[in-house]
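Lab notes, practical 5.
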Amino acid sequence: MKLSIKDLVTIALFTAITVIFAQISLPVPFSPVPITLSLFAVFLSAMLLGAKRAAFVNIVYVLLGICGAPVFQGFTGGIGKVLGPTGGYIISYIPMAFVMGKLVNDIKRITRIKMVYIMLLGLVICYGFGAAWLMISTGISPAAVLQSAVLPFIIPDLVKIGLVSVIAYELRTRLAETNILPKG
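Output from the prediction step:
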């Protein structure tokens, strides 16, 4: 895939949005996983940019963090963060973005409800990667992971999905008319 200057600028912009949204967080006292808006940014990039560009956004985001740039929640970075308890969630952004972006571009007539279903699938990918890595990295039981790192996040994540479905649908419609966002 050859990337144009417009593609590179768009990827950089959405990477910056992800970094900013990752800093908006609420700690959860009974969980090692905070509630952040980084998923909001992942959903938004996938709904607007398509599979490859959205995946690139999240690859750049993860690589910046691994290299030590303070891009993760709480202005943290480094390989330790990715290998720590929340690393599975962070890594999941890449396949989430690709799968969601692929589906949103492959569906002939995208609607808000179709976006919601696509983002729900992305959320399952996120929870799957995140919960599995949390169990591996901490040794806690599947029931404990479900209780501390999945169930408390369902409602906030559904709210994010609802908001992104409204925002992304409107943006896709308006930006398609102006040719601002890259196609495909």
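Observations recorded by the TA: The mean pLDDT is 93. The radius of gyration is 16 Å.
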